[in-house]
Amino acid sequence: MITLVLARRLLDYRRERRQGRDRSQRGASLVEAALVTPIFVLFIFGIFEFGLLFRSYLTTTTASSEAARAASVASGGPTADYLIVQSMAHGLAPQNVDNMIKMVVYDAADADDPVPAACLTGSVTDVCNYYTPASVALDYLDEDGHRTPHWGCGVASVDQHFCPLDRDTSAEPPGPGYVGVYVETRHQYLTGFFGTERTLRETTVVRIEPGRPRLDLR
Length: 218
What we know:
The chain has helices at 2-74, 80-91, 117-120, 133-136, and strands spanning 100-108, 128-131, 178-188, 197-207.
């Protein structure tokens, strides 16, 4: 009889110890989860956010490249900068043109020539044209098929400072000249863990194709 009582107490003691260990393990697991979960969530959001950031960077690079390609092909024609702006907008479409901050088309001395600092502020200079998102909406032709005053190097034209008609398209050395396209956009973060937005910049310099006809859309 005494042996049965002792055996039962021993079983009860072991059961209580096991339950205590289970409660302790559950408490430790909760503490570990509380510590690890924020880090894990931040890691997942980081992958998501920087994936979108890289996409925006590639889009900005594409927009600059497409605009520069248009600058080379359009050469010294009156429609050159209009085509450059539209090509930039086409390349920037996946990111949304509203995220464009500015675009500068400038006279480059060579393939490595950066955009002049004065051109980045929109200062009046004869070596560059400064464009904003509003420039994308400026039509080249009106409803009657006539050229609007927005383009064509007129006194009210957005391309008047670095006029396409004055660009060096000669095939003889040292021509043809170079044209640089600087594109600046904003990337807006979604979660806010890494800030609100980031500015992206890309510059592409190309040589103008020589001897291109100066065609007008009219």
